Known about the structure:
Elements: H1 2-18, H2 25-28, H3 35-40, E1 42-46, H4 61-67, H5 71-80, H6 101-110, E2 115-121, H7 148-159, E3 163-169, H8 176-183, H9 190-207, E4 211-215, H10 222-225, H11 227-236, E5 245-246, E6 278-283, H12 303-315, E7 318-324, H13 334-350, E8 371-376, E9 381-386, E10 394-397, E11 408-411, E12 416-417, E13 419-421, E14 427-430, E15 445-450
Parallel strand pairs: 1-2, 1-7, 2-3, 3-4, 4-5, 6-7
Antiparallel strand pairs: 8-9, 9-15, 10-14, 11-12, 11-15, 13-14
Amino acid sequence: xxxxxxLSLYLLFIGTCYCQYKPTWESIDSRPLPEWFDQAKFGIxxxxxxxxxxxxxxxxxxxxxxxxxxxxxxxxxxxxxxPEFTYADFAPKFRAEFFDAKEWVDIFSSSGAKYIVLxxxxxxxxxxxxxxxxxNWNAVDVGPxxxxxxxxxxxxxxxxxxxxGLYHSLFEWFNPLFRADADNHFNTTVFPKTKTLPELYEIIxxxxxxxxxxxxxxxxxxxxxNSTGFLAWLYNESPVRDTVVTNDRWGYGSICKHGGYYTCxxxxxxxxxxxxxxxxxxxxxxxxxxxxxxxxxxxxLNTEELVGALVETVSCGGNLLLNxxxxxxxxxxxxxxxxxRQMGQWLKVNGEAIYNTTAWRVQNDTVTPGVWYTWxxxxxxxxxxxxxxxxxxxxxxxxPIVSHSKTQVMLLGYKxxxxxxxxxxxxxxxxxxxxxxxxxxxxxxxxxxxxxx
Length: 453
């Protein structure tokens, strides 16, 4: 009798603790977002795969070449490869011979980012780990002959405090099992049951990521993918059930509606407060997520633009996920490295206005353009981030309510500044005359206001 009561208590404990979420959107969407993600504000996206070998046009190379038959892609292949060359023939050339996971982690850490999101499988179907479900179309059996996901996960956990995020595409352009299900109007579910879902369980159990970035629904509804069933397992029973964060790309129609945080569209940056947690995924290369050999300098966002995107995104309640595309041989090219290290230089000075902040009652100043606000409720500090240094020697902040006896204004990385009240509310802050080498940073300057309402 005694044994049975202990067992039944244990079963009750399992039931109450681990079966909190049901496989419905209503239940899945009720899960609170783990706090670390909102506090992190800034992550690095990494698009790396077989598409890094042709490194032409886009990471959608295969689709544009053979799915859409775009003339520029067809011409590129005719000029550079023999006529019988297939996309699969690129895989042995994906060797990653210069790949150094520790060096990557050093670059990512130096950027000031708090998490990374690595493509474990893009729409081409090639898995960056030795999946049991990808036959020989994976990085262990062909190309690098190593577990690239495992190498990065290990380096990240050994040499940094960055959170590990994994990207995974639900569908695969040319997989015959997926094509057959699509031809059946997704009334058959052979592909998700034999490929997508087993892979998802595999990467969660094997690498224990704290973020799962789902993508590519192939126009199939979430019911076809059994997304709510998988997410219920992820939140109830998986080894990362308490810490894992997910996005909103879980089937046709779920984007910007269901899941953890919203991504809505690529490069989503609404410019106003969004109540639900969201992420702006933005690529340094304006035209592609994967590496492109034909990119010009003008195709890359400069550091001023990237800092501006981070500031605007965080002010409106979002996180910035900034993308780099490594080369087929495993390098993060100097232009990407420079951009990331410069983001880190800026965050060393201005990080307190970004990390662990929340949206303020207004996002950007209602009078002065190019001024964005963030807020730390605990310290009751308001941060006004000025995207361009004014020629006038002062800046007017119209929204803070100030008091001469209480309010103090500090230029981060410098010292306190003097100010005057303006009518009806707000203040005029006098900026110091600084030479370029005296400036606390090279892009976007932060004023911290304490004792303001």
